[in-house]
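Example S7 (structure tokens).
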């Protein structure tokens, strides 16, 4: 049976609707939105004594149900189809004496002005506004003018709609320009997800007298999970907010039907601040065989650990889901701007929402476990927050790592999933005379997190590799004697501090473009300057160019200035496929200047973070043109790759020689009474080095 029109224009034809309802017969036709779902919203805006007009009523049961539950009785229903009006008059008959059905065109209504308190439209606007042709828009304008005319001041136009962007935008712009208050409700779903995918919305347009001049627009949205409306600033933002909810509904529908081949990511925002509160990743593991209890689980990532490889990368999350043994795992990252009431509070807050992401075939009786590391949500304390003109907004925060260790981190919020600098914190020493706790004494409360910086510890794997690269300088102790090291990029200062503290005769110069970072490193990461450590606030490009110019005027016999140059500088431009260093630092003319300031037996150490394969290959080709000897050391589980570049190929060492040399250097650095972490296995660091 063909019930669809041959063209959208037929939606406005009485002949089409007569044929439609004649073919359909007595069965009620509901465009969308069953009365039990709509009732909570309608109840807010329809009062028992209101006079209600239903436009384009069709043979929907909504008016009858409103009447029967006592919501309202004085209801006038109009439709352009004579056939459906006769059908409805016969169906209601004497059962609902105060309700009437009239054949009438809503574009030319016969009611007096200000005759109704409520005009109700269930799908009629959607049926008319099928396109944005001039004739269609003129018809909709006429409809809105008529609705406005028959509504009293303070009256409400309630429009049930699927909220296609052009439909919502037209309604919002028309009525907000007339000075009406516009509010959009998302209708709570009956959870019969297989029946209808798209969410249903109710536009509530409240009529006010139009004020001359530019009165502020009042635009609001009420998501289904909350009653309190949220104010939005423009029609575009309102349309965007609705579109986000539509996309979410489609996503949930897709996830319920089929496993997801790629990981899905979404943010759940705080109701008050509208800032992200949770970031969810949906990970399916096809290799996990389904059993009674392993369909679905939620994993809460402890605060501050979302940047770790296991939680912060696709491959890591895939490995986590497989090792957890669940067919679908939803990882949940907690945001630093939010407060959380422990694991139980998070579980209560998320239980309803995460079930919308359940996999196909999840049994109704299945309990979904909430998992975490150690059963808690971790610890994150923001110690300092500020904004730099160069680096943007940043935070210094202390987080609890795996076990009992605490770490201090510098995070640039423009790239909040990347740890810019990290330092381990020292556990506080016991106070003199403090007795140990025994069984017969009261157990002390939890200790305060440590605050002193452990300067002997390098947290970042790429920093350990950069230090290991100094083995290329040669000799039993590469930094024995008066050696000079230039570090471009300060961050928290851990790399130059380590070189300064462990290579006792090295003179370290640091170049940092952002003065705010020197303040952060000094105040929060234990960095300090001295006779062998100097910081120069300058653009690294300019500083190296100046040094190269000075070297070029020296006598030929005069040595270049530096034994080692180390680049650990991030790019502020996130649109490039290389986040470290900025592209200008690896252009050939600048690399030649770096070579100029290096001694012939020196080494240039570069921290490279490049996701663009073509760009990386081009960059390596440029480096090989300038530096005859090039080694690479990839960092396992990270995008970072450390490049060791030498201006002469005469000192070429194969990887086995480098490893042997590193063992000698490590032995020289292990001084009595000086802390040395086992993770600084310099020889192991160089096992993975390859010559390019």
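Recovered sequence:
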């Amino acid at each position: 049976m063909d019930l669809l029109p041959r063209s959208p224009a037929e939606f406005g034809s009485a002949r089409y609707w007569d044929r439609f309802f004649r073919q359909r017969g007595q069965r009620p036709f509901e465009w969308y939105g069953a009365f039990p779902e709509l009732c909570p919203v309608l109840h807010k805006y329809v009062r028992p004594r209101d006079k209600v007009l239903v436009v384009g009523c069709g043979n929907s049961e909504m008016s009858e149900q409103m009447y029967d539950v006592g919501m309202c009785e004085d209801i006038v229903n109009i439709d352009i189809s004579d056939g459906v009006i006769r059908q409805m008059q016969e169906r209601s008959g004497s059962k609902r004496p105060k309700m009437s059905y009239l054949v009438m065109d809503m574009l030319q209504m016969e009611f007096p002005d200000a005759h109704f308190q409520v005009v109700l439209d269930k799908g009629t606007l959607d049926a008319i506004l099928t396109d944005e042709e001039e004739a269609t828009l003129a018809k909709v304008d006429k409809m809105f003018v008529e609705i406005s005319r028959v509504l009293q001041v303070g009256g409400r136009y309630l429009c049930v709609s699927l909220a296609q962007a052009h439909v919502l935008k037209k309604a919002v712009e028309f009525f907000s320009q007339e000075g009406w208050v516009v509010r959009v409700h998302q209708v709570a779903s009956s959870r019969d997800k297989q029946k209808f995918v798209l969410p249903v919305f109710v536009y509530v347009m409240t009529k006010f007298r139009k004020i001359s001049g530019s009165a502020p627009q009042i635009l609001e949205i009420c998501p289904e999970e909350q009653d309190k409306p949220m104010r939005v600033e423009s029609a575009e933002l309102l349309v965007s907010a609705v579109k986000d909810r539509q996309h979410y509904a489609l996503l949930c529908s897709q996830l319920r039907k089929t496993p997801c081949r790629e990981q899905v990511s979404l943010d759940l925002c705080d109701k008050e601040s509208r800032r992200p509160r949770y970031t969810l990743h949906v990970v399916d593991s096809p290799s996990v065989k389904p059993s009674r209890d392993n369909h679905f689980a939620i994993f809460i990532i402890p605060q501050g650990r979302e940047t770790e490889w296991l939680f912060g990368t696709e491959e890591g999350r895939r490995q986590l889901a497989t090792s957890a043994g669940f067919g679908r795992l939803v990882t949940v990252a907690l945001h630093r701007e939010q407060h959380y009431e422990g694991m139980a509070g998070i579980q209560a807050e998320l239980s309803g929402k995460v079930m919308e992401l359940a996999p196909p075939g999840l049994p109704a009786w299945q309990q979904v476990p909430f998992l975490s590391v150690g059963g808690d949500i971790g610890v994150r304390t923001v110690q300092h927050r500020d904004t730099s003109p160069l680096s943007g907004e940043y935070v210094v925060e202390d987080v609890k790592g795996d076990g009992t260790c605490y770490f201090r981190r510098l995070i640039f919020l423009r790239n909040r999933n990347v740890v810019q600098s990290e330092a381990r914190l020292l556990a506080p020493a016991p106070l003199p005379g403090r007795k140990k706790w025994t069984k017969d004494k009261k157990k002390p409360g939890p200790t305060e997190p440590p605050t002193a910086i452990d300067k002997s510890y390098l947290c970042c794997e790429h920093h350990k590799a950069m230090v290991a690269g100094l083995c290329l300088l040669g000799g039993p102790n590469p930094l024995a004697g008066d050696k000079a090291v230039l570090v471009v990029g300060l961050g928290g200062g851990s790399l130059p501090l380590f070189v300064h503290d462990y290579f006792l005769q090295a003179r370290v110069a640091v170049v940092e473009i952002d003065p705010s970072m020197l303040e952060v490193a000094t105040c929060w990461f234990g960095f300090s300057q001295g006779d062998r450590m100097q910081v120069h606030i300058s653009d690294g490009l300019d500083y190296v160019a100046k040094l190269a110019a000075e070297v070029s005027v020296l006598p030929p016999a005069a040595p270049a200035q530096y034994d080692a140059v180390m680049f650990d500088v991030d790019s502020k431009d996130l649109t490039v496929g290389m986040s470290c260093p900025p592209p200008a630092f690896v252009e050939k003319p600048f690399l030649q200047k770096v070579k100029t300031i290096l001694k012939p037996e020196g080494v240039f150490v570069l921290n490279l973070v490049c996701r663009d394969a073509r760009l990386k290959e081009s960059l390596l080709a440029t480096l090989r043109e300038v530096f005859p000897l090039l080694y690479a050391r990839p960092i396992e589980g990270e995008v970072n790759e450390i490049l060791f570049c030498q201006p002469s190929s005469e000192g070429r060492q194969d990887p086995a020689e480098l490893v042997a040399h590193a063992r000698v250097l490590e032995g020289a650095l292990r001084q009595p009474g000086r802390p040395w972490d086992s993770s600084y296995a310099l020889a192991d660091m160089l096992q993975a080095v390859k010559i390019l």
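Notes on this example. The chain is about 30% helix and 25% strand.
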